[in-house]
Amino acid sequence: MGSPEVNLLGWWRSRGSAARFDLFVRYTFYLSYVFLPPLLIINFAQEVGTAALVVLLATLVIYVVLSCRLVHVGIEHHLGRGPFPRRLLTAYLITTCAVLATGELTFPNPLPGKPDSPGDGISVIFLVLAITTLSAVLRPRYVALAAAAGGVWMYLTAPPGHALFITLMLQFLVVAFRSTLWMLAVVWELDRSREVRANLAVAEERLRFARDLHDVVGRNLSVVALKADLAAQLARRDRSSAAIDEMLEVRRIAHDSLDELRAVVSGYRTADLSVELAGARSLLASAGIDCRVIGEVDVSGEPAGALGWAVREGVTNVLRHSEAHTCTITLRGKVLTMSNDGASLTTFRFGSGLTGLHERVAALGGTVTAAPEAPNRFVLTVELP
To answer: CA-CA 20 to 30 A from 298: which of 29, 87, 184, 259?
Structure first.
């Protein structure tokens, strides 16, 4: 087992920045309760009797414990992790009023040579503790009102000069502790935002991977199914040589698909527009579909990649969802149009492939439209800015 110092250091390092700041804020409150009792002992040891001092210290210990508990649940409520401590707050306020009244009634008169009474000193100590604690529980305006009420109490019981100083000190405590709590809430919110951003990045990467996988597997499996069916028909007609050629082509496509899947997993896969256009001609021709390409490629980079994905998705849809005989691909600058004559005018909706294409193009500021047109055409248009 490691030493306590090593374990404590490891525990501290394992906590995030927000958790560390949370501990700092909490112990800022708690340490104020540690330093105030010794001040009370030093100030009142010579001013009150031994019995009164023991009672006062016992009361102070109970009050500090109650204050620590209220600070804890108050901060939890401030961070949205717990309910408002209504009953505990009520008991705390009653206790505070009782202690202040008892102190002033027990020690109402100043000692010889001193401007204020021991009761005034008791009021100062407990008011500082109370305002510190209430700063963790109440909203700023209510804490400020409580501090103002404490100032009024001091004006009624202590010399005016001392009362003014205590009033300003109580308001300063309100500003200091409420500002610290506000910063704590901001730090936790930033921490949650960072976590949400990380989760969104993971979700976006999963979505990108799903789109790539759909684009690769969807089209290639459609081609494999088409050529396997063609090979089966050739075999039935005793054209074994042609059937073998088709099955060898299926094997080639399967190998290409495997390479593309590896590229998708590696995260480096892109769609080359020129390659996709050549592949579209070849695949559609093998399916008995006449493919014409009008225009030339005059884009590069991400726009070319987006149009390449559009060609791939359009060819996949032609092979899987149409009975087309002709397909025309038109390129005009950064606008690509794919039209085929194998569509019906039934209800149309975006599938996962077109949705993924729309997301790709939208990321570049472009638009995607896909709709059937009379009498039997289907037109896919991708326009980049």
So the answer is: 259
In angstroms, what CA-CA distances link 115 with 105, 106, 111, 168? Answer: 17, 17, 8, 19
The pLDDT of residue 16 is above 70: yes
Q: What pLDDT shows up at residue 123?
A: 87
Q: What is the pLDDT of residue 2?
A: 55
pLDDT in tens, 154-163: 888 888 888 8
Residue ranges of domains in the chain: 4-196, 205-383
Q: Which two tokens stand for residue 226?
A: 């088409």
Which one, of 258, 260, 246, lies nearest residue 308 by Cα?
260
CB-CB contact of 153 with 130 (8 Å) = no
User: Quick one: tokens of 27?
Assistant: 């112990």
- Whether residue 188 contacts residue 26, with contact meaning beta carbons closer than 8 Å, is answered with no
Cα distance between residue 78 and residue 46, in whole Å: 41
Predicted model pTM? 0.56
Cβ neighbours of residue 342 closer than 8 Å, sequence gap 6 or more = 318, 322, 323, 324, 325, 376, 378
Q: How far apart are CA 20 and CA 315, in angstroms?
A: 56
- SS3 label, residue 324: coil
Question: How do strand 326-332 and strand 290-294 relate by DSSP bridges?
Answer: parallel
142's CB contacts (< 8 A; 6+ apart) are 134
Structural class in CATH, domain 205-383? alpha beta
pLDDT tens digits, one per residue of 208-228: 667 666 666 666 777 777 778
Residues 6+ apart with CB under 8 A from 151: 163, 166, 167, 170, 171
Nearest-angstrom CA–CA distance, 285 and 283 = 5
347 vs 337, more confident: 337
